[in-house]
From TrEMBL, chains A, B:
The keyword Transferase applies. Residues 98-467 form the Aminotransferase class I/classII large domain. Its cofactor is pyridoxal 5'-phosphate. GO terms for molecular function: pyridoxal phosphate binding; transaminase activity. One of its GO terms (biological process) is L-alanine catabolic process. This is Glutamate pyruvate transaminase. Belongs to the class-I pyridoxal-phosphate-dependent aminotransferase family. Alanine aminotransferase subfamily. Pfam families: Aminotran_1_2.
Length: 485, 485
């Protein structure tokens, strides 16, 4: 039906800022892949593949990853507290350890019922437990009053950008390539994205000269740059920033008076190097040079969706604020109040993530065994995929460093670019679409994350089990190159 | 610390639209009541009450309401599917009926894992089940492709207002008194709220002449009025609209080309009258006069937070679109994609709400017994509270009709208004604050929902058990009136 059909709303009169937003992770290719999946489920036999591999999104439990037993046992009791009346059955017949029951009791005491709203910023006892985790992790105190529970990190980013951006001149420095949540949210808010490129030659690390140049250019154009987003470890790239890079960003934020948004959701997905939190580094610098860094405002985000937990569907997360004005925090509280509170079972899941079984506790052995198996499995799959990329003509990819993704460069022949243009697509979109049609593997074109002019990439997760799908990509690539060379 | 302390963000430079938003349901009084609650938990003995009653928000499970057994048993299995391997233990030792296990299997087949992201608009099989519920409820077909799962109805409202409002001239007709989600969201979006008053003399029903006048006035002021919000049954008032009022609103929407947003989250909380959905009425009118109502766009919202389910903490809900342009729906899909998906366990809860055990199924008897007990308990509490209001000087309140609230008028002496003004408060705020301090009962001043100039109200839920708290309100009111008369 035509868009100007007499309806009140049409594509030309709805919110133009929503229309301008782009979100390729769940865009055309993802929709098409779901159609293939439905067709296969309905018995389609005319497709050249037997399964769809959703490598477009970090969704571990959709693929192969099993949830961690301790976590799900506790959650099952939270959903049905009547089970606690049959503790002996749980322990003797269902394999629940006593610490599972204890934790469930503690969390129920903290939230009352998972069916009740919590305070808008999250259940106080859970925020207390997060603060203790942060203290253990960083070696510096954390205050539960500065912690806000959110429905995944995405909702936390949405909150923070809503507060920071006052009008269309408000700018936020965003790394490119990036997770498109940032650009999409800034579009919706009608604020200004100030892109800065990561350095592919240095494992996609931050390059301060590049950041500074992007900042200067934006300022010269009249943009009121207010904040800088750092994704560490990186998405889509997996790189963990070394201490000197973090220090440099904090120093830059001080000089230029920028709020730091540290997206640290991949903090446990680290194969190479070490995760260092911005909070720890900031506190360290404040200690080294008293007074110098007191005015820095930092928001750091975490989530249950990634790491070895991988519980995306539960929409759990939090952010911690450092150095924010109390009056601004009151506005953040009011803003999150409008949506009432983060899902309470997701809040409990955050508590289980930050406070897992300790050595010597009954559930510890199984927990650590499952945790390590997931970690090692991810590393192995990343390595196998990387190895496959090394065989592929015109494909270059750094050694897997962490997160859940690889982001190879692809060099495609001019004939492919021409064929893409004929379809009104960018060459990377064209390549990824052909890959989906040939193999059932759904990846995201680099243009969905941003890439330097003249370069092409795609992002794939390394979550899918088995090697068959990797082989199918290698085969597809060869045929594609042969066709368009 | 002062607001202009050298920080980048202060109360004067953050997003002014967030700052302008008001959300009294979780405002100053709610925060103060939580402080009292914490003080009591820490053993405070200097307060004139022993417990805090949060009558400010419809949060049944925070107070007394037990979750429905069938629902929570299924959810416990969804959280820990390994329990299905011990089906005999569940049935023989834990009292799970076979239909609980069956439903859990069905939902697990629908979502894979509750820890995995679903498609952005919700799991297809759950949307199918909702469509079947809507067909049973309304007697007209529903299409799963037009159903969008949301994190409670609030997030659905947020989505729809984001699409509808293009700029600051975009206006939405909102009933007064109203649930402040609407005014707050419109503030954040910097769009225009066009208030229309409900008719207190007619049980807070819609009065078309009033709506029309508000609309004309807004149009004359250059507002591009695009939609009308109807809360049916009403919040804070509980009234169910009769068929003729719904027809009148639909006819008005046709004449004035307005999208209808039907907030129907209290559809089962009806003591007097009958719930009639806008969808049913619209389809009926389309059938009666073919062609006339084809261009009406309707979005109707529902939630697991209210009704006899009362599972607010799970943040589950959906909205159904009727008559929307496919291109506009594609933008809605993209918008919800940015936040990935509604909590998957909450999606499953929606399915359990719309498709409860049927007569003859093993879980039915207990289900219907629990359901009716909650319904009757709410009705009894509402009646008891209403009776108390009848005894109170200067308090007037219609017979309870539904939802979870009463919204009495209060007439306060001039001396009270003067004392309020001296504190920089409205008289109703002043009254509610004194009530909280004297009784520990937290209600919301009428000004938080909007009220006609010169009238005063407060909103209270009737969810709290027992009669002591009601007695304490009566006693407080007498003392307040004696003091300020």
């Amino acid at each position: 039906m035509a868009s100007n059909s007499g309806r009140r709303l049409n594509i030309d009169n709805i919110n133009p800022h929503v229309r301008a937003a782009k979100y390729a992770v769940r865009g055309e290719l993802a929709v098409k892949s779901e159609e293939y999946r439905a067709a296969l489920q309905n018995g389609a036999t005319d497709l050249p593949f037997k399964q769809v591999i959703s490598a477009n999104i970090g969704n571990p439990q959709q693929l192969d990853q099993k949830p961690i037993t301790f976590i799900r046992q506790v959650l099952s009791i939270l959903e049905n507290p009547a089970l606690l009346e049959k503790g002996d059955v749980l322990v003797n017949h269902l394999g629940y350890k006593p610490d599972v029951l204890e934790r469930a009791k503690k969390l129920l005491a903290a939230v009352g019922s998972v069916g009740a709203y919590s305070p808008s910023n999250g259940a106080p006892a859970i925020r207390q437990s997060i603060a203790e985790f942060l203290e253990r992790r960083d070696g510096f105190p954390a205050n539960p009053a500065d912690i806000y529970m959110s429905a995944g990190a995405s909702s936390g980013v949405n909150t923070l950008l809503h507060i920071i951006c006052a009008d269309e001149k408000s700018g936020v420095l965003v790394p490119i390539p990036q997770y498109p949540l940032y650009t999409a949210s800034l579009s919706v808010l009608n604020a200004t994205c100030v892109p800065y490129y990561l350095d592919e030659q240095k494992n996609w690390g931050t390059d301060l000269a590049t950041i500074r140049a992007a900042h200067e250019k934006a300022k010269a154009e009249g943009v009121d740059v207010r904040a800088i987003v750092i994704i560490n470890p990186g998405n889509p790239t997996g790189a963990s920033l070394p201490e000197e890079d973090i220090r440099a960003v904090i120093e830059f934020a001080r000089q230029e008076r920028l709020v730091i948004l540290a997206d640290e959701v991949y903090q446990t997905n680290v194969f190479i190097g070490e995760f260092i939190s911005f909070k720890r580094m900031l506190r360290q610098m404040q200690k080294e040079q008293p007074g110098t860094y007191d005015n820095i405002e930092l928001a750091s985000l975490h989530s249950v969706s990634k790491g070895m937990i991988g519980e995306c569907g539960h929409r759990g997360g939090y952010f911690e604020l450092v150095g924010f004005d109390p009056l601004v925090q009151a506005e953040i509280y009011k803003f999150v109040s409008i949506m009432l509170c983060a899902p309470v079972i997701g809040q409990c899941l955050v508590e289980l993530m930050v406070n897992p079984p300790k050595p010597g506790e009954p559930s510890y052995d199984l927990y650590i065994q499952e945790y390590n198996a997931i970690f090692n499995g991810l590393h192995e799959r990343a390595t196998a995929l990387h190895k496959a990329f090394e065989q592929m003509e015109g494909v270059e990819c750094g050694v897997p460093q962490g997160s859940m993704y690889l982001f190879p460069t692809i060099k495609l022949p001019p004939k492919a670019a021409k064929a893409a243009a004929a379809e009104g697509r960018t060459p990377d979109e064209f390549y990824c679409l052909r890959m989906l049609e040939a193999t059932g593997v759904c990846v995201v074109p680099g243009s969905g994350f941003g890439q330097k002019e003249g370069t092409l990439h795609f992002r794939t997760t390394f979550l899918a089990p088995g090697t068959e799908w990797v082989g199918s990509i290698v085969k597809f690539h060869k045929e594609f190159m042969d066709k368009y060379r």
